[in-house]
Amino acid sequence: ISSRMVLAGVTSWMSYASTLRTSSDSDLQNVLEELNGTLKSKSFLCGTSNVSLADLDVYFALREKFSDDDLVSTVGANANFERWFDQVQHVATDYSCGDAPSMIQKFTKKQNGPVFFYGDEPNFSEICAATARAVAETSSAKTSLVAKSKTVKSAEGVKSNAPPSSGGNELTDEQKAAAAEKRAKKAAEKAAKKKAGAEKGKGKGAAPAGSGELNIGALDIRVGLILKAWVHEEADKLYCEEVDLGEASGPRKIASGLRPFYTLDQMQNQRVLVLCNLKARNLAGFPSHGMVLCASNADHTSVQFAVPPSDAKIGERVVFTGYEDVAPEAENKV
């Protein structure tokens, strides 16, 4: 998975977490079914091999929104979600994030699934010993199966001009040479494909070599102007806005959780930056298409708009020094 796709996924899921915190009509069962379906084919929300910032943000949003008892009551119905929750809460504990330890004993999976050990189990040595025995038995069974397979092939006869060796299940020199040649040919084909793929991917918005940074060129960030803002009727933290982005289709409708930080008057005619290639979704019943970008302090007690330069034109796209100006990703990939 590419770094720009990971960054786009982190942005999208953190927006989801923000919506979850501010929505007044979030139904636990619907939320769990959605997450369970998403995690059916991946270990973590952004397709990464480890817990990301987005996983932690969604995890703590769930803990803030729903009670421990409500979450524990769902055990057994959403196996993919339970596996994800169990992994993330241990990571949160390892890094001393929040109050994760209070849930670990409660949230025990009732369905069979992947088992993870953290070294603090009371019978950890017994588990290790049992695991070692199982591995040894499996290895022995595989060795026996391979030997049996070679014997069967020898009995059936192998196409070769040379007579079989006296052992009955050993390959002849000609067979060994043919097998080595076949392996070398496959390795050469694989290397050629890998080289061709690397050359094809050069210059397509990749971050500069050695920069170690994620490419944010996949995000479609544009200058906008809030033409109209009003209070959401059902969500006590949301504003609804009409934002001019210079699009032929007219202003976009966007919901933002900014009521604790800005008055309604301060929202009117405000120049902003908008992430435009987020997939449209309903926020507390309001169809929101995009996200107004802001910055905050560490504890989120202060939030301020990301304000574009005064001479930037409405609809102008933000580009970043050191990254190629490539077409943004489609909405269904962000």
Describe what is shown at a glance.
This protein is of the alpha+beta class.
CATH topology (fold) name of the domain at 219-333: OB fold (Dihydrolipoamide Acetyltransferase, E2P)
Dominant shape: flat
Q: Regarding CATH, which class of the domain at 219-333?
A: Mainly Beta
CATH architecture of the domain at 219-333, please? Beta Barrel
Q: Approximately what portion of the residues adopt beta-strand conformation?
A: 5-15%
Structural Rg: 28 Å
Class from helix and strand fractions: alpha+beta
Fourth CATH level, the homologous superfamily of the domain at 219-333: Nucleic acid-binding proteins
Structural notes for this entry:
- With 334 residues, the protein is of the alpha+beta class.
- The chain has helices spanning 3-22, 28-38, 53-65, 68-72, 79-94, 101-104, 124-156, 173-201, 264-267; strands at residues 221-231, 239-244, 252-256, 271-275, 281-283, 286-288, 291-292, 294-296, 303-305.
- The chain has a 5-stranded antiparallel beta sheet with strand order 3-2-1-4-7, with no helix packed on it. Strands 5-6 form a two-stranded antiparallel sheet. It has a two-stranded antiparallel ribbon with strand order 8-9.
What is the element layout, followed by pairings?
Elements: H1 3-22, H2 28-38, H3 53-65, H4 68-72, H5 79-94, H6 101-104, H7 124-156, H8 173-201, E1 221-231, E2 239-244, E3 252-256, H9 264-267, E4 271-275, E5 281-283, E6 286-288, E7 291-292, E8 294-296, E9 303-305
Antiparallel strand pairs: 1-2, 1-4, 2-3, 4-7, 5-6, 8-9
Helix pairs in contact: 1-3, 2-5
